[in-house]
Write a structure and sequence with these properties.
- The protein is elongated and about 100 Å long.
- Helix content is 59%, strand content 16%.
- Helix 1 (3-19) packs across helix 3 (55-62) and helix 4 packs across helix 5.
- It is built from 6 helices and 5 strands.
- By secondary structure, it is an alpha+beta fold.
- The protein starts with a helix and ends with a helix.
- 27% of the residues are buried.
- A hairpin with a 2-residue loop joins strand 4 (104-110) and strand 5.
Length: 172
C-alpha cells in the first residue's frame, strides 16, 4: 500500500467510524475464505458491511471520532462490522459467532457508547429497525380498525331493530 492508498483508507474508515449506527470489532483468525465470504454476504443482506483494515490505520482513523475508545480493541487480526441500523451488524455478528467458534466478538460501539462483548450480544437480541416499524404500524392500525368496527356496529344494530319492527307490523 502506498501513501495515497493509506490516506484513502484512513479517510474511508474515519467516515465509517463517524457515520455508523453500530460498530462491532471481532477477531477472525482461523476463518476460511468461504466463511469470510459468507459473513460478508450475510452482512450485505442485512444492510451492514464488513471491513478488514490494518490496526494502525484504523487507530489513526479513530482519532477525533466519538468511538475513539475502540482503539484498545484493535489488537491482532480484527474485523470491523458496521451498519447504520444499530441492531443489524451486532445481530449478524452474534449469529455468525454462534456458528463459527473462531469468530470472537471483542466489543463495539453504538454511537458514542462503548460496548463489551456481552453488550453487543444484548444489542443483537433487540428487534431490528424494520421489525420495530412493522410493530408500530400494527399498533397504529389496530385502534383505527376497532374504532371503525365500533362506529358501524350501532348503525347495523339500529337497522336490524327497524327491520324487525317492519316485518312485525307486516305480519300483523
Amino acid at each position: 500500500m502506498d501513501r495515497a492508498e493509506k490516506r484513502d483508507m484512513v479517510a474511508t474508515l474515519n467516515s465509517v467510524f463517524s457515520n455508523s449506527g453500530a460498530i462491532v470489532v471481532a477477531h477472525y483468525s482461523g476463518l476460511t475464505v468461504a466463511q469470510m465470504s459468507t459473513l460478508r454476504r450475510q452482512m450485505r443482506d442485512a444492510g451492514a458491511s464488513v471491513k478488514v483494515a490494518k490496526n494502525r490505520l484504523a487507530k489513526i482513523a479513530l482519532e477525533g471520532t466519538d468511538v475513539s475508545h475502540l482503539g484498545s480493541l484493535l489488537q491482532g487480526p480484527t474485523v470491523l462490522a458496521y451498519s447504520d441500523d444499530p441492531v443489524a451488524a451486532p445481530k449478524i455478528a452474534v449469529e455468525f459467532a454462534k456458528a463459527n467458534d473462531k469468530f470472537v466478538i471483542l466489543g463495539g460501539a453504538m454511537g458514542a457508547t462503548s460496548l463489551n462483548a456481552d453488550a453487543v450480544k444484548a444489542l443483537a437480541s433487540l428487534p431490528s429497525l424494520d421489525e420495530l416499524r412493522a410493530k408500530l404500524v400494527g399498533l397504529i392500525q389496530a385502534p383505527a380498525t376497532k374504532i371503525a368496527q365500533l362506529s358501524t356496529a350501532p348503525a347495523a344494530k339500529l337497522a336490524r331493530v327497524f327491520g324487525a319492527y317492519a316485518t312485525r307490523d307486516e305480519a300483523a
